[in-house]
UniProtKB/TrEMBL annotation:
The organism's place on the tree of life at top rank: Bacteria
Organism field: Bacteroides reticulotermitis
Stretches assigned to the HU domain: 1-124
Protein name stated in the entry: Histone-like DNA-binding protein
UniProt keywords, alphabetically: DNA-binding
One Pfam family in the UniProt entry: HU-HIG
GO-annotated molecular function: DNA binding
Keyword DNA-binding annotated: yes
InterPro entries, per database record: HU-HIG, HU_DNA-bd_put, IHF-like_DNA-bd_dom_sf
Protein backbone atom coordinates (compact mmCIF):
# COMPACT_ATOMS: atom_id res chain seq x y z
CA UNK A 1 0.00 0.00 0.00
CA UNK A 2 1.31 3.44 -0.94
CA UNK A 3 1.17 6.56 1.20
CA UNK A 4 -1.16 9.30 -0.07
CA UNK A 5 -0.28 12.88 -0.94
CA UNK A 6 -2.04 15.99 -2.21
CA UNK A 7 -0.92 19.38 -3.55
CA UNK A 8 -1.25 22.54 -1.48
CA UNK A 9 -0.62 26.18 -2.30
CA UNK A 10 2.59 27.49 -0.76
CA UNK A 11 1.97 30.85 1.02
CA UNK A 12 3.68 33.74 -0.79
CA UNK A 13 4.31 37.39 0.19
CA UNK A 14 1.21 39.53 -0.41
CA UNK A 15 2.95 41.53 -3.15
CA UNK A 16 4.01 38.37 -5.00
CA UNK A 17 2.06 37.27 -8.07
CA UNK A 18 3.72 33.86 -8.18
CA UNK A 19 1.82 30.70 -7.31
CA UNK A 20 3.76 27.72 -6.03
CA UNK A 21 2.61 24.30 -4.82
CA UNK A 22 4.06 21.66 -2.54
CA UNK A 23 3.12 18.05 -1.78
CA UNK A 24 1.93 17.07 1.68
CA UNK A 25 1.10 13.72 3.24
CA UNK A 26 -2.60 12.90 3.54
CA UNK A 27 -3.14 10.66 6.58
CA UNK A 28 -5.27 7.65 5.67
CA UNK A 29 -6.43 6.91 9.21
CA UNK A 30 -5.26 6.72 12.81
CA UNK A 31 -4.22 3.26 14.01
CA UNK A 32 -5.19 2.51 17.62
CA UNK A 33 -3.64 0.13 20.15
CA UNK A 34 -6.49 -2.26 19.39
CA UNK A 35 -5.51 -2.28 15.71
CA UNK A 36 -1.82 -2.79 16.47
CA UNK A 37 -2.61 -5.69 18.81
CA UNK A 38 -4.71 -7.38 16.11
CA UNK A 39 -1.92 -7.03 13.54
CA UNK A 40 0.70 -8.47 15.91
CA UNK A 41 -1.62 -11.36 16.84
CA UNK A 42 -2.06 -12.22 13.15
CA UNK A 43 1.72 -12.27 12.62
CA UNK A 44 2.81 -14.15 15.74
CA UNK A 45 1.78 -16.66 18.40
CA UNK A 46 0.91 -13.87 20.84
CA UNK A 47 -2.69 -13.29 21.83
CA UNK A 48 -4.25 -9.88 21.30
CA UNK A 49 -4.94 -9.46 25.02
CA UNK A 50 -1.30 -10.21 25.87
CA UNK A 51 -0.07 -7.66 23.34
CA UNK A 52 -2.39 -4.97 24.71
CA UNK A 53 -1.37 -5.73 28.28
CA UNK A 54 2.32 -5.47 27.37
CA UNK A 55 1.79 -2.15 25.60
CA UNK A 56 -0.10 -0.71 28.56
CA UNK A 57 2.74 -1.70 30.91
CA UNK A 58 5.26 -0.32 28.42
CA UNK A 59 3.43 3.02 28.34
CA UNK A 60 3.54 3.25 32.14
CA UNK A 61 7.28 2.49 32.27
CA UNK A 62 7.89 4.82 29.32
CA UNK A 63 6.23 7.78 31.07
CA UNK A 64 7.93 7.05 34.39
CA UNK A 65 11.45 6.82 32.96
CA UNK A 66 11.00 9.93 30.82
CA UNK A 67 9.84 11.86 33.89
CA UNK A 68 13.05 10.72 35.62
CA UNK A 69 15.01 12.57 32.96
CA UNK A 70 16.18 9.48 31.11
CA UNK A 71 16.48 8.97 27.36
CA UNK A 72 14.69 5.85 26.14
CA UNK A 73 16.17 4.05 23.13
CA UNK A 74 14.06 1.52 21.23
CA UNK A 75 16.12 -0.50 18.79
CA UNK A 76 14.94 -0.06 15.21
CA UNK A 77 12.78 2.94 16.16
CA UNK A 78 14.85 5.62 17.86
CA UNK A 79 15.30 7.57 21.08
CA UNK A 80 12.90 9.66 23.17
CA UNK A 81 13.55 12.32 25.79
CA UNK A 82 11.59 15.19 27.27
CA UNK A 83 12.25 18.84 26.47
CA UNK A 84 12.53 21.27 29.38
CA UNK A 85 11.75 24.99 29.26
CA UNK A 86 11.75 27.83 31.76
CA UNK A 87 11.23 31.60 31.82
CA UNK A 88 14.34 33.71 31.28
CA UNK A 89 16.10 35.04 34.38
CA UNK A 90 18.78 37.68 34.85
CA UNK A 91 20.94 35.41 37.01
CA UNK A 92 21.20 31.62 37.55
CA UNK A 93 20.52 32.33 41.23
CA UNK A 94 16.98 33.42 40.30
CA UNK A 95 16.11 30.09 38.68
CA UNK A 96 13.70 27.92 40.64
CA UNK A 97 13.05 24.24 39.94
CA UNK A 98 9.28 24.76 40.14
CA UNK A 99 9.44 27.24 37.24
CA UNK A 100 10.89 24.59 34.89
CA UNK A 101 8.38 22.48 32.97
CA UNK A 102 8.26 19.79 30.30
CA UNK A 103 7.29 21.41 27.00
CA UNK A 104 7.28 18.33 24.79
CA UNK A 105 8.98 15.10 23.77
CA UNK A 106 11.98 15.00 21.45
CA UNK A 107 12.09 11.98 19.13
CA UNK A 108 15.29 11.10 17.27
CA UNK A 109 14.62 8.33 14.71
CA UNK A 110 17.18 5.57 14.27
CA UNK A 111 19.23 5.36 11.07
CA UNK A 112 17.58 2.02 10.25
CA UNK A 113 14.09 3.51 10.54
CA UNK A 114 14.99 6.50 8.37
CA UNK A 115 16.58 4.27 5.75
CA UNK A 116 13.48 2.08 5.52
CA UNK A 117 11.04 5.02 5.44
CA UNK A 118 12.99 6.73 2.66
CA UNK A 119 11.84 3.86 0.45
CA UNK A 120 8.18 4.86 1.01
CA UNK A 121 6.25 5.22 -2.25
CA UNK A 122 3.45 7.74 -2.74
CA UNK A 123 0.32 8.08 -4.85
CA UNK A 124 -1.95 11.08 -5.32
CA UNK A 125 -5.15 11.01 -3.29
CA UNK A 126 -8.19 10.43 -5.50
CA UNK A 127 -10.39 12.99 -3.72
CA UNK A 128 -8.66 16.25 -2.88
CA UNK A 129 -8.67 17.53 0.70
CA UNK A 130 -6.91 20.83 0.06
CA UNK A 131 -8.49 24.21 0.55
CA UNK A 132 -10.48 25.87 -2.16
CA UNK A 133 -8.44 28.58 -3.85
CA UNK A 134 -10.79 31.49 -3.17
CA UNK A 135 -9.62 35.02 -3.88
CA UNK A 136 -9.60 37.71 -1.19
CA UNK A 137 -12.61 39.34 -2.88
CA UNK A 138 -14.57 36.07 -2.79
CA UNK A 139 -13.76 35.49 0.88
CA UNK A 140 -14.71 39.07 1.77
CA UNK A 141 -18.00 38.55 -0.06
CA UNK A 142 -18.71 35.41 1.95
CA UNK A 143 -17.89 37.26 5.17
CA UNK A 144 -20.19 40.15 4.25
CA UNK A 145 -23.08 37.72 3.77
CA UNK A 146 -22.24 35.91 7.01
CA UNK A 147 -22.08 39.10 9.10
CA UNK A 148 -25.60 40.07 8.02
CA UNK A 149 -26.90 37.58 10.59
CA UNK A 150 -23.90 37.04 12.88
CA UNK A 151 -21.82 39.34 15.09
CA UNK A 152 -18.60 37.32 15.06
CA UNK A 153 -16.89 34.45 13.26
CA UNK A 154 -14.52 31.66 14.33
CA UNK A 155 -11.79 29.79 12.47
CA UNK A 156 -13.88 26.61 12.27
CA UNK A 157 -16.87 28.57 10.93
CA UNK A 158 -14.76 30.13 8.17
CA UNK A 159 -13.50 26.63 7.31
CA UNK A 160 -17.04 25.41 6.62
CA UNK A 161 -18.13 28.70 5.05
CA UNK A 162 -15.35 28.85 2.45
CA UNK A 163 -14.14 25.24 2.29
CA UNK A 164 -10.76 26.09 3.81
CA UNK A 165 -8.36 24.03 5.87
CA UNK A 166 -7.96 25.22 9.47
CA UNK A 167 -4.44 26.62 8.93
CA UNK A 168 -5.56 28.52 5.82
CA UNK A 169 -8.68 29.90 7.52
CA UNK A 170 -6.63 31.08 10.50
CA UNK A 171 -4.13 32.79 8.19
CA UNK A 172 -6.94 34.52 6.26
CA UNK A 173 -8.50 35.82 9.49
CA UNK A 174 -5.18 37.11 10.82
CA UNK A 175 -4.54 38.91 7.52
CA UNK A 176 -7.83 40.76 7.92
CA UNK A 177 -6.96 41.73 11.48
CA UNK A 178 -3.70 43.27 10.21
CA UNK A 179 -5.64 45.04 7.42
CA UNK A 180 -8.03 46.53 9.99
CA UNK A 181 -11.08 44.65 8.70
CA UNK A 182 -11.53 42.38 11.74
CA UNK A 183 -10.78 42.77 15.43
CA UNK A 184 -9.52 40.04 17.71
CA UNK A 185 -9.69 40.19 21.54
CA UNK A 186 -6.38 40.59 23.32
CA UNK A 187 -6.19 37.20 24.97
CA UNK A 188 -4.18 34.69 22.94
CA UNK A 189 -6.56 31.77 22.50
CA UNK A 190 -9.76 33.69 21.79
CA UNK A 191 -11.64 31.99 18.92
CA UNK A 192 -13.76 35.06 18.08
CA UNK A 193 -13.19 37.59 15.30
CA UNK A 194 -15.45 40.67 15.02
CA UNK A 195 -16.04 42.88 11.96
CA UNK A 196 -14.71 46.44 12.16
CA UNK A 197 -17.47 49.01 11.44
CA UNK A 198 -17.20 50.09 7.82
CA UNK A 199 -16.28 46.61 6.60
CA UNK A 200 -18.38 43.63 5.50
CA UNK A 201 -21.56 45.72 5.43
CA UNK A 202 -21.31 46.69 9.11
CA UNK A 203 -22.35 50.32 9.62
CA UNK A 204 -19.79 52.75 11.03
CA UNK A 205 -22.53 53.92 13.41
CA UNK A 206 -23.08 50.46 14.92
Amino acid sequence: MNALYDFFVTPQPKDSHKKRYHARLVVRETITLEDVAKIIESRSSLRQSDVKGSFIEFADVFKQELSNGKSIHIEGVGSFRIKAESPEVRSPKEMRAESIHCSGIVFTPSKDLLRELKATTFEKVSKTSRSQELSDIEIDGQLAEYFKDNSYITTSRLCSLCGLRKSTALRRLKERVVEGKLSHPGYTHSPFYFPIPGWFGVSRNS
